[in-house]
Amino acid sequence: MGAASYFKRIFTWWDGQTLGTQLWTWRKGIRVGEDANGNIFYTNADATRRWVIYKDDTEASKVSPDWHGWLHHTWDETPGDAPLTHKSWEKPHQENLTGTAAAYAPAGSLRRAEPAPKKDYEAWTPE
C-alpha cells in the first residue's frame, strides 16, 4: 500500500471506513450483526454508540429499514434478535438510485436511449 493509499484511508470516508473508524472498531467495537447486503453493524460496550461498516460504497440508503431503526436507537434489539414483522403490501428495500445509471428517467427524458419525439410542439418564428 503506497503513501497515497494511506492518506486516502486517513482523510476520506466515501471509499469505505477511514483508518480512525477502523481503529475505533478494532478497539471498542462489538459486532452485533450483518445485513443481506454484507454491511456489518457494531456497538460499543455500553451500547451508547452504534455504527455500520459498509461492504461496498458508503451509501446510507443501502441500510435496510430494519437496521436503520436499530442504528438510530428506535429499538434496542437488532433485526437478528427481534425481526420486524412486515405487511403483505410492503415492497422490499431498494437503495436510492439517484445519480446512477439505473436512476428513473421518465418518458421524454434526454437520458433515455430513445427520447420521445416532440409531436405536440411547434416552434414560434417571428414574422
Strand arrangement, major sheet: 1-2-3
Amino-to-carboxy terminus distance: 69 Å
Number of helical stretches of at least 4 residues = 3
Q: Name the structural class.
A: alpha+beta
Total strand count, please? 3
The amount of helix comes to: 10-25%
What is the percentage of strand-forming residues?
A: 5-15%
Mean pLDDT: 83
Radius of gyration: 22 Å
String of helices and strands: HHEEEH
Shape: flat
Sheet having the most strands: 3 strands, antiparallel
Q: Which residues form runs of ≥5 with pLDDT under 50? A: none
Could you explain the architecture of this structure?
- There is one protein chain.
- The chain is α+β, with helices and mostly antiparallel strands.
- It has a domain at 3-71.
- The protein has helices spanning 3-11, 19-28, 65-71, and strands at residues 30-34, 40-43, 50-53.
- It has a three-stranded antiparallel β-sheet with strand order 1-2-3, with helices on one face.
- The longest helix has 10 residues, at 19-28.
- The chain starts with a helix and ends in a 56-residue tail after the last helix.
- The model has no long low-confidence stretch (mean pLDDT 83).
